[in-house]
Amino acid sequence: MRLRLKIAVFGLACAAVVTIAPSAKAYVSNDRWVTTASGSAGVAGDPVTLTWSIVNDGTNLTGEGPSDLVNFLDTNLGAGPGGTDLTQRPWFQHFDSAFDRWSELGGITYVYEPNDDGVTQGSFLAGSLGVRGDVRIGGALIDGASGTVAFNYSPDNADMVLDTGDAVFFSNSTSNYRQLRNTVMHEAGHGFGLSHVDSDTSRFLMEPFISTLFDGPQFDDIRGVQALYGDFFEKSNNGQGNDTTLLATSLGSVAAGSTLSLGTDAVDAVVSFSDTDFLSIDSSTDTDFFSFSIDGPSLLDVVLAPLGPTYNQGIEGGSQTPIDTSVLSDLALAVFDSDGISLLAASDTAGPGLTESLTALNLPVAGDYFVRVTGADAVIQFYQIDLSVENAVTFAEADFNQDGNVDAADLGVWQASFGVDAGGDADGDGDTDGADFLAWMTQQTGGSPSFSPAVGVPEPTALTLILLVGFPFLARRM
User: Fold this and answer.
1) Cβ–Cβ under 8 Å, residues 415 and 400
2) Distance between alpha carbon 413 and the CA centroid of its chain, in Å?
C-alpha cells in the first residue's frame, strides 16, 4: 500500500490511494508489522522495534528514479560539517525528533540505523541490522511545488519518499520546522499501520488535512499506536511488558500523606508536544501491574478512572460517527499483598466509563504491594490511576471502640463481648475474657489504672475474680 501526502491551498492534505474499511474503534488501522529487523512483532498490543535509515543519494526509488534527498536537505537546511555521518547534519535532528516522538507515546521504539546498502528502496526488501533500516527514507522530484509532498508504504515495507521539488515547504523553519516534522510523523504513522481519518470536530495528525496548529500526534493518533503496539510500559522488561506481578512497573515508595497519579494526559483531543503520560488497556487480554512500597502500616485509597474525549471520526471521505473514548471498555481494579498472590481487595462494579475505587484499604506492614488494572472489552481504553497513602491510625489494644481513648466506653464493649465474641479482645487470643479486662485497667487514658464500681461487670470467671479482688491491693502498691 502506498499513501500520498499533498499540499492544499489552505493547509496540508493527504490523499490515500487505497480504500480502508470503516472502524468502530476510532483511529483507522490498515495493518501492523509482523517481522522487523529486530525480530517478530508479535500480535496486537505487543511492542515493536523499528529501525530507520536514510538512503544514499543515487539509490533507486521504485517508480521515482534516484534519490537526491541528502543533497536537497543539505542545500535547503544546511550541510553542517558534511561527511558520511548524517547525524552531524543540522536537519537530522528533525527526523530524529519525529521518530522519537512516536517512541514516547506507545509501545513502538524507533532506532536510527546509520547504514543503508543502497538496494532499491520501496522493493519490500526486509530491514537488516547493520545493513538497512526497516523504514528507509529517500527523496525525489515527485510533482514539484504545491503538489504531493510525500508518500509512504505500509507494513511490512514502510519506506518513505519526500518530494524534493517542495523546497519552500520543507525549508520553512516556523515552529522548529513543524511542516517537515509533521510530514515525517504523519508518514511514519502510515508506516506502522495507520490510515487516514476524517473529523469535523477535532484535528488529528492522520487526517487528510493536517493542521500545523498542533505539533505531532494527537489523541486519536495515540490511540492508534497504543492499540497496535500497547502503551509505553509494554516496552519494559525487554519487551515483556508489565502483565504480571514479577514484571510490575515500579512506582517506588509512596510517602504517607502523598498522592501518586499516572495517565493524566489522556483528557482531551488536543495533545501538547510535552504530553507523554498516557496509559491504556489495549484489549481484554491486556493486564497492567504496578508495584509500590510503603514504610509502615498505612491506609491506601486507589481510584481508577477511564479517560478520553468525545469526537466525530471516520475513514477519509466516509461518514463520521461520534465516539466517547472514555466508555469503550469496562475496567477493573485489584490490590495484592506483598507476595503478589494474595488478593487484598478488588473493585469491578461501576461499569464502562465509571470510576472504580478502593478506600481506606489497610496495609498492615511496610513493604511492597501491587495494583492490577484490567479491561473486559476487546477495545483500547485509556485510564488514570491515583494512589493515596496515609499512616494507619493505631489504637491501644484495649481501645475496643477505637475512639483514641481507653475509658468506660471500652469497658462497655468488653462487657458486651465477654464470653461471646472477640469484640473486647486486647491480647489477641481470639476471645474476650478476664485477661482483656486487666489490659483495659492498665491502659486507661490518664495514667493510673482505676476501676469504677458503678459500672456493672458480668459474672466473672475465676481468673477475673482474682483480678477484681487483687486489683485494690495492686493499686495501693503501685
Assistant:
1) no
2) 48
Give the pTM: 0.81
CA distance 471 to 473: 5
**To 10 degrees, what angle do helices 174-192 and 219-229 make?**
40
What is the rounded CA–CA span in Å between residue 179 and residue 100? 17
For the chain, which residues make up each domain, given as ranges? 2-229, 239-391, 408-477
Q: Give me the architecture of the 239-391 domain, per CATH.
A: Sandwich (2.60)
The number of beta carbons lying within 10 Å of the beta carbon of residue 210 is: 23
Residue 377 corresponds to which cell in the numbers above? Answer: 472489552
Specify the residue for cell string 481508577. 304
H or E element that contains 191 = helix 174-192
Q: Give one word for 146, left, alpha or beta, with left for phi > 0 and alpha for psi -120 to 50.
A: left
pLDDT per residue rounded down to tens, the chain (478 residues): 555 554 432 333 333 332 223 333 557 777 899 999 999 999 999 999 999 999 999 999 999 999 999 999 999 999 999 999 999 999 999 999 999 999 999 999 999 999 999 999 998 889 999 999 999 999 999 888 877 889 999 899 899 999 999 999 999 999 999 999 999 999 999 999 999 999 999 999 998 876 788 999 999 999 999 999 999 999 999 999 999 999 999 999 999 999 999 999 999 889 999 999 999 999 999 999 999 999 999 999 999 999 999 999 999 989 999 999 999 999 999 999 999 999 999 999 999 999 999 999 999 999 999 999 999 999 999 999 999 999 877 778 889 988 888 999 999 999 999 999 999 999 889 999 999 999 998 888 754 333 333 334 444 444 444 444 444 333 333 3
Angle at 66 between CA 131 and CA 192, to 5 degrees: 55
Q: Do domains 2-229 and 239-391 have the same CATH topology?
A: no
Look up residue 468 and give its three cell numbers. 477484681
CATH class of 2-229: alpha beta
Q: Name the grid cell of 414.
A: 468488653
Listed residue (401, 410, 411) closest to 457, CA to CA: 411
